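Task: complex structure prediction.
Instruction: return structure tokens for all chains below.
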Amino acid sequence: MLTDYVVWTVQYVLLPVTVPILLLTGIPIAVWIERRGAAFIQDRVGPNRIPFFGLRNAGLLQPIADALKLLVKEDFVPAKADKFLYYLAPAFSMTPALLTFAVIPFADVLEVGSYRIPLQVADLNVGILFIFAIASLGVFGIVFGGWASNNKYSLLGGLRSSAQMISYEVAMGLSVIGVLIVFESVRLNDIVRQQGELLFGFLPRWGIVVQPLGFLLFFVAALAETNRIPFDLPEAEAEIVAGYHLEYSSFKFSMYFMAEYVNMLVASGLLVSLFLGGWQIPWLPTATLVSWAGPWVTAALQATAFVVKLWFIMWVMIWIRWTLPRFRYDQLMGLGWRVMLPLALMNLCVTSLVPFLLGIYGT
Amino acid sequence: MTKVKNVTPAVRYKPQERIYLLEILKGLALTFRHLLRNLVTYRTNRQTIVTIQYPDERRTYSPRFRGRHRLKKNPDGSMRCVACKLCEGNCPSRCIHIEPAAYPDPSKGNYPAKYEIDILRCIFCGYCVEACPKDAIEMTQVSEMGTRSRTVYDRDFLLSAEEQTR
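Output:
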């Protein structure tokens, strides 16, 4: 049934094309959840005015209407803007966001006959390092946009963004090292596979169980890295109007907008992979599932589990956004350097020492 | 120089408040309670959502609401206005302009050949209504007066507004 050619096509054409498309499909859904969720949290109704051939659909088509509106708007370039960087910046924001998802596995390796198809775009052995390397590039999109707009508020937004990214990337990286020590790998699929094991015979060995503090730190840092409230200092409407994307309109603005949501999706995917068992269905390891339902159904079920977890984290991010106010700038820096960093270092020390003290891994 | 004393006491947070997490969870619980309540009651009569969905639903205004003017007619269809110009004289923003004319039949008196309200100047104070001895002008409930062309309401428009009282 499967030939080398088909496997090659799936691995190098089908997956790299469909995964970004699915990721982009997540944006309107996220926007819809965000707007309706916000409305209901604030005792409002939210968008409900876009009928589909007379069919009311609770505003599901609102994001599409918004996108169309943005497409036909005037594409404005400010006078004395740095044209090259101004055009480059939104793309520079979007591309790393999409790239990082490449190494996140959404199901176990599909074993059909003698073929092994990893269900992720790129099964890199440097997984997490790749994510951090590429995700750090995302800040350039914001800094370029802020600089090239020739606007003082945009510049402030870009400055804040770079300071924030540097501060929180430190804590983020350190909180992840704990996980890497526990699972002894940086390849994401290995990390996820080990989370299918059981602790004490009943508790899934998820990252959140073995690294609760790491989970908390990573989650907070992920919120900061994706510029979500309460860490949306770079755009802070009340203080610097809209920050780095103040001068952007039309499709360039929607690129920034989409990049924010793709970043959220990627952050959720990474969080799920590192701490919430990735594609693992609790208490049902891949071997058991395959013996029951065959490899294809197993892959589908695991992908579903991954998507469910991912959207749960997305919802928590949206929920937090509509609950908390924005940090003051010194509070943001204080939290990053004086709270998150020491806690992450402490977590790292304890995680490194415990195996030796318990003699689990020998000396 | 008087000494200004700081009367606002410094807020002292308890330890459990200083680590934020518990308080954040409380906040999340609050917002989630609102979300659930609105999800449950969304399609029921006991709605907790306060939005008035404007073009479909409207706020009810007070019966004394002062909206767009209209000129009233007698039961036989003739104008009640006798062009006495009291409203014009009483108007604080001087937005009413009347040109009287006489009926051919002297027993019938005068009528306004021209009755214009510059709606851009009008402040909707209702003094014209109070000044009118013939109860010929009144203010309707209409508040939606957005337009691109008609900024001066002429006599015939004010008369035709009869049906739009809502």
